[in-house]
């Protein structure tokens, strides 16, 4: 393997220019070629069958809308598979937004798992062997090392890895999800947590994903044919989740001069946040404190992405732009005062640590006479509410919504 994350992650250069370059290079393959080859994982050195756009979508250097529009313009109905995959992202974001208890449960189970590791030498050794790729299971060990080296895994490798972690190694699923969050550049509270739950049989109760040696061999071009994998995947069980929390109505944005606050859930600096709002300054916040659940590779990406967002905002929004570490009230208030803003407007952050940090910011801002308004992007506002059941009804609703108005600049 050889390549360490410090050398490998610059492969994901965190600028919108790079995101657009990659999108442009991928679009010719977003039609039939993607549909036919997307399940193949030739390994980190092989030409990719997929876009590897996930870090750019995750932090919104690219919007879902523009990626989907690009694929449809180029391939029409042949882009269907690719469009569906991008919609999985919006679906998972909506699912978590409507069911915040899932994120809270993950954090609680992760912490309980970490406690269990501290108490049990056997579990500690088993988790360490899995994370370091020393289990002796062909493929699994390679993916563990590939993840640590590159901050990225092909979707199929993520599915196989999660399945083997849960059903063959019988390790706590939340520790596996945590391992992914600490290494993926695209580390996402919704896509990661819900995908692990989907494999475990918690997302669609009773329906699990079982990794098989033949499937792995076929889709890795014969690179791996592991032995000793579980032949059954019995679904994990949990207490029922609380009822869905409907999306709150969008708050009105007070008239006046606004500071636009960008953050790791949305570095879309060039998209208007609310038509008619007078943006007089921009602040791009990085991924803050050490207890945020993602690791060094994601953190570095986010820091560069914040710099890039601020630089782009200088040209596309009103006023000056700056970068701040984390979402501390002092820095936000200082930036608002410097810009002469009377309101702070932020694109909505769906459930996760950024949303929590925005929640913590509201009180101190109000105490200082400043309002924080969180505004859902039109894409999110239109789609998240439909993530009430499974993916397929969501996709149908999304197509109807997108077909009706295309959602402007998203
Ligand atoms: C266990 C597990 C954990 C995962 N954790 C994450 C995560 O933390 N962050 C993350 O962005 N994705 C996650 N995924 C989803 C998916 O694996 C990645 O989005 C995808 O592999 C990224 O590669 P790509 O950009 O080449 O995808 P492409 O196949 O080119 O798809 C284009 C885009 O569609 C979205 N997408 C594709 N497949 C999925 C999917 N199954 N679920 C949600 N969105 C999808 C991504 O934004 C992706 O960039 C996870 C999947 C599994 C099985």
From TrEMBL:
Domain named Cryptochrome/DNA photolyase FAD-binding: residues: 82-209
Transmembrane segments: none
Keywords: FAD, Flavoprotein, Lyase
Top-level taxon of the source organism: Bacteria
Family matches, as SUPFAM superfamilies: Cryptochrome/photolyase FAD-binding domain (SSF48173)
GO molecular function per UniProt: deoxyribodipyrimidine photo-lyase activity; DNA binding; FAD binding
GO annotation, biological process: response to light stimulus
Coiled-coil intervals: none
InterPro entries: Crypto/Photolyase_FAD-like_sf, Cryptochr/Photolyase_FAD-bd, Cryptochrome/DNA_photolyase_1
Cofactor binding description: Binds 1 FAD per subunit.
Cofactor: FAD
Residues involved in FAD binding: 34, 82, 85-92, 186-188
Protein name (Swiss-Prot/TrEMBL): DNA photolyase FAD-binding protein
């Amino acid at each position: 393997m050889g390549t360490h994350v410090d050398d490998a992650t610059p492969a994901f250069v965190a600028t919108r220019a790079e995101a657009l370059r990659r999108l442009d290079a991928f679009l010719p393959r977003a039609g039939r070629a993607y549909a036919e080859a997307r399940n193949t994982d030739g390994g980190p050195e092989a030409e990719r069958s997929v876009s590897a756009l996930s870090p750019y979508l995750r932090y919104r250097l690219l919007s879902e809308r523009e990626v989907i529009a690009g694929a449809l313009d180029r391939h029409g109905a042949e882009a269907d598979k690719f469009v569906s995959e991008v919609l999985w992202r919006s679906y998972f974001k909506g699912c978590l937004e409507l069911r915040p208890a899932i994120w809270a449960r993950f954090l609680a189970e992760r912490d309980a798992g970490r406690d269990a590791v501290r108490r049990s030498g056997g579990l500690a050794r088993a988790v360490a062997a899995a994370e370091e790729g020393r289990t002796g299971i062909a493929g699994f060990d390679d993916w563990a090392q590939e993840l640590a080296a590159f901050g990225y895994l092909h979707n199929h490798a993520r599915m196989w890895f999660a399945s083997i972690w849960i059903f063959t190694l019988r390790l706590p699923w939340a520790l596996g999800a945590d391992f992914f969050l600490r290494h993926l550049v695209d580390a996402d509270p919704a896509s990661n947590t819900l995908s692990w739950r989907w494999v475990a049989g918690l997302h669609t109760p009773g329906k699990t994903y079982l990794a098989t040696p033949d499937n792995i061999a076929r889709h890795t071009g014969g690179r791996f044919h592991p032995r000793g994998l579980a032949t059954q995947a019995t679904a994990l069980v949990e207490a029922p989740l609380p009822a869905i929390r409907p999306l709150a109505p969008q708050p009105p944005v007070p008239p006046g001069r606004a500071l636009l606050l960008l953050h790791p859930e949305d570095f879309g600096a060039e998209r208007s946040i609310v038509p008619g709002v007078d943006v007089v300054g921009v602040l791009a916040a990085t991924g803050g404190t050490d207890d945020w659940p993602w690791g060094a590779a994601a953190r570095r990406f986010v820091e560069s992405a914040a710099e890039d967002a601020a630089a782009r905002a200088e040209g596309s929004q009103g006023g000056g732009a700056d970068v701040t570490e984390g979402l501390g009230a002092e820095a936000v208030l200082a930036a608002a005062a410097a810009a002469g803003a009377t309101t702070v407007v932020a694109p909505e952050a769906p459930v996760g640590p950024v949303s929590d940090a925005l929640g913590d910011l509201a009180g101190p801002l109000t105490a200082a006479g400043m309002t924080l308004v969180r505004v859902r992007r039109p894409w999110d506002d239109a789609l998240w509410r439909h993530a009430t059941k499974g993916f397929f009804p969501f996709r149908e609703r999304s197509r109807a919504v997108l077909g009706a108005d295309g959602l402007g600049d998203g």
